[in-house]
Amino acid sequence: MWPQLYEWLALFIKWFHVIAGIAWIGASFYFVWLDNNLRTPPEWKLKKGIKGDLWAVHGGGFYEVAKYQVGPEKMPEHLHWFKWEAYSTWLSGTLLLFWIYYLRAEAYLIDPQVMMLSAGQAVSIGIGGIAGAWLLYEGLLRSPIAEKPLLLSVILVVLGALFCYGFSQVFSGRGAFIHMGALIGTIMVANVWVKIIPGQRKMVAQVSAGEAVDPAPGLEAKRRSVHNNYLTLPVIFLMISNHYPMIYQHHYSWLILCALIGLSAWIRHFFNLKHQGIDKPSIIVSGAIGLLLLAIFVSWTGSRSQLNAASTASSTVKQNALTSAQQQASAIIQQRCSSCHSRTPNDDMFTTAPGGVMLDHWQDIDRWKERIIARATVSKDMPFLNKTQMTEQQRQQLQQLLSAE
Fold first, then answer.
1. Fewer beta carbons under 10 A from the terminal one: N or C of the chain?
2. For residue 310, what pLDDT band results from cuts at 50, 70 and 90?
3. CB 189 within 8 A of CB 75
4. pLDDT at position 314, please?
């Protein structure tokens, strides 16, 4: 019952997280596009304090959207706040991080070939790294460096690369990538929570009281919104990265991660400029070329798991030291699973272990034991399409052997 319940809860949390993320990032895309496409309104609208407006057609209707220079003469009865899209995305993402990567740290977060950690140590490093990155970011934006955009950008890029490298040196490839996603997502939602929404609340209160509006909070909120906009494509990639072990299992996964974050932000820059009427095809072309070169690099160089294969053999438990149950379970897995789930797969379709799950030695099998039971003996969707023809008897035997350990 527990493997099935665990999978169902993981599905529902991930489903909600994706829906919330679509709502948040969609709103970010829309408002940056809207802000960049506002046009100077007629004189009578300017006198009402309208800074720009936009006409659009969608779903069989015409829409007129106006942005005020400061605020309306009278606050409307119903005012929508775009905040829960961000909060629900972060809350569901954090729940997913704990449910998958922290609750089962031994399988998804800890890779003994990278660093031997206890579950508590790994979770502490993960939470500490995310919190530390946000504090560094917030400190920089509150310092005099924030007044020098180029210097600030360089420092943020360097810090981002250091965190990519640092996570890859302590976590599994999959765990490192997802922690960079959590780090970026935390910075984005903190921008909303710490600066954007408080700035808007202050503006609404001043307009409601008929006071002069202080422009500083609004300008800071705009800057944070722009930062969030450039981080949208990187964070979307990191949300789906766990499906592509060829990237996160690569020997230079941290460098690939840095390149993907940089290239996706660069491509986002093309669209932001285009919304302002500035067409720079060289940006999208150079971004596409960069992604192509990255794909070639990944395909032509060895994965981290392959380069570590030799050291793995000498560091894991020897086969003749295993119990009888462990030997029997290992024999079934080597026969039915390891053609794909290996550091050096020999399957005709998979050249990298799917999901980063490698089952060459008992140490690996023990690490993934609960997942093997869930997929090979409960849902029975593994081996993939039952390519290796695992029998029902072997599934039942494997469940008994692993459950007894």
1. N
2. very low
3. no
4. 43
Spatial distance between the Cα atoms of 108 and 103, rounded to a whole number of angstroms = 9
Who contacts 288 (Cβ-Cβ below 8 Å, separation ≥6)? none
Q: What is the DSSP letter of 66?
A: E
Contact 185, 89 (CB under 8 A): yes
Helix or strand or coil: residue 115? Answer: coil
Which amino acid appears at position 55 of this protein?
A: W
Residue 264 phi, psi (nearest 5): -70, -35
Q: Are strands 50-58 and 61-68 parallel, antiparallel or unpaired?
A: antiparallel
What the block records as the tokens of 398 is 């494997």
Cα gap 80→85, rounded to integer Å: 12
DSSP letter assigned to residue 39? B
d(CA 187, CA 175): 18
CB atoms near residue 348 (< 10 Å): 9
46 half-sphere exposure, CB direction, 13 A CA radius? 5
Residues 199-258: pLDDT tens digits? Answer: 888 888 888 888 888 888 888 988 998 899 999 999 999 988 888 888 888 889 999 999
Q: What angle do CA 99, 336, 369 make, to 5 degrees?
A: 30
Indicate the pLDDT class of residue 405, thresholds 50, 70 and 90: low
Residue whose entry in the numeric block shows the structure tokens 């659009």: 56
pLDDT tens track for 358-391 = 888 888 888 888 888 888 888 888 888 888 889 9
Note if the pTM is more than 0.90.
no
CA angle 397, 382, 252 (to 5 degrees): 120
Question: Taking 80 as the threshold, does the pLDDT of residue 396 lie above it?
Answer: yes
Direct distance between the N- and C-terminal alpha carbons of the chain, in angstroms, rounded to an integer: 18
- Provide the sign of the torsion angle of the four alpha carbons 43, 48, 51, 52, taken in this order: negative
Dihedral of the CA atoms 376, 241, 101, 373 (nearest 10)? 0
List 55's β-bridge partners, or say none. 64
Please state the length of the chain.
405
Please give the pLDDT value at position 113: 83
Residues pairing with 66 in the sheet: 53
The predicted pLDDT at position 311 comes to 45
